[in-house]
Design the sequence.
């Protein structure tokens, strides 16, 4: 099962916004609460972050597939979470 990977930088205002959207969506939909998300602080895990092809944060990957990169909206975070659920609904 592919995992959801979330690349961020703590000082990034867009990453903090993505964090808020994630929490709001988890409160609104209990299915989202069970999604395992590997949060990667690229300032601490540079080698791991460099092994993925992206430039801007926040960035979300499902396995090796990039789902989102850069400035986020709540709808875009919902899309990322829904993609995870759709891919893993029969597992």
Sequence:
């Amino acid at each position: 099962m592919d995992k959801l990977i979330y690349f961020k930088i703590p000082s990034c205002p867009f990453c903090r916004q993505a964090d808020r959207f994630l929490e709001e969506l988890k409160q609104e939909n209990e299915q989202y609460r069970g999604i395992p998300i590997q949060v990667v602080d690229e300032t601490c895990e540079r080698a791991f972050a460099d092994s993925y092809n992206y430039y801007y944060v926040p960035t979300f990957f499902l396995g090796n597939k990039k789902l989102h990169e850069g400035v986020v909206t709540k709808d875009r975070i919902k899309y990322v979470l829904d993609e995870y659920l759709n891919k893993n609904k029969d597992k």
In short: Helices lie at 13-28, 30-33, 46-50, 74-87.
